[in-house]
Design brief:
alpha/beta, UDP N-Acetylglucosamine Acyltransferase, domain 1, ten-stranded mixed sheet, nine-stranded parallel sheet, elongated
Length: 268
């Protein structure tokens, strides 16, 4: 069902039950899966692969050129999983380099609210929620089930771990470990609600809570990680935290407890 005011490139591939509403523009090799709806005034560009049962717009910009000075044209790629919702004014850009291995990726069952932005070469895993006006710079990785609060911005090449939660308005310039809660510019604790809603179970959730207690009780993150790694019985989720921190290239956000204590001392 394509509205007569919509413009659809003949190279686009639309499943038989796709709905394209009024004044939409679809250009390039765009693929739309079964049951997907493109609401009014949305703009889609290829090469963009969109899964089944997605909801796009109204007024969303999906698969447009990357905002990268080195982009020289060419059919770069964006891949979006099934059952993902992309609301009004959101913008998702293709990768800056040609090749599926460089594709910008947004997983299945994600919810990108109004004004959210996913830049070139980002990798957003399944079940991620990005509230209004969340901005991801290029090459950002967001783990499955993460929640990014309204208006937060993430610096390029940063990583947000699985089931982490970032408060609204935060500026993320370093990596956020899995299961962490970010507020006041640092790690404030763990994502208790997200862990409880997941399938990790009470025992694993308690292990994560204990791990973040150690992180906040030690002034050095390295000391905390060494202590966690030396434990005789290490829960898989805690091991995930340790491995994430040890593989960080940008560094990891510090504990808000000590970060804000240092700020207070400096001001006095």
């Amino acid at each position: 069902m394509i509205h007569p005011t919509a413009v659809v490139d003949p190279r686009a591939e639309l499943a038989g039950d796709v709905i394209v509403e009024e004044f939409c523009s679809i250009q390039g090799r765009v693929t739309l899966g079964a049951g997907t709806i493109v609401h009014a005034h949305s703009v889609l560009r290829g090469v963009t692969d969109i899964g089944a049962r997605c909801r796009i717009g109204p007024g969303a910009f999906v698969g447009t050129d990357p905002q990268h000075r080195g982009y020289g044209g060419g059919e770069t790629r964006l891949i979006i999983g099934e059952d993902t919702i992309i609301r009004e004014g959101a913008s998702l850009h293709r990768s800056a380099q040609v090749g599926e291995e460089h594709a910008t990726i947004v997983g299945a069952r994600c919810f990108l609210m109004a004004g959210a932005h996913v830049a070139h070469d980002c990798n957003v895993a399944d079940n991620v929620t990005m509230a209004n006006n969340v901005l991801l710079a290029g090459h950002v990785d967001v783990g499955a089930g993460a929640f990014l609060g309204g208006g937060c911005v993430v610096h390029q090449f940063c990583r947000i771990g699985r089931l982490a939660i970032v408060g609204g308005g935060e500026i993320i310039t370093k990596d956020v470990p899995p299961f962490a809660a970010v507020r006041w510019g640092g790690l404030k604790g763990y994502n208790a609600v997200g862990c409880r809603r997941s399938e990790m179970g009470a025992k694993a959730s308690a292990a994560v809570r204990a791990a973040f207690h150690i992180i906040h009780a030690r002034r050095s993150l390295r000391v905390a990680m060494d202590e966690l790694a030396a434990a005789q019985e290490l829960a898989a989720e805690v091991r995930e935290i340790v491995e994430f921190v040890s593989s960080s290239r940008r560094g990891v956000l510090p504990s808000a407890r000590y970060l804000n204590g240092s700020r207070a001392s400096a001001e006095n």
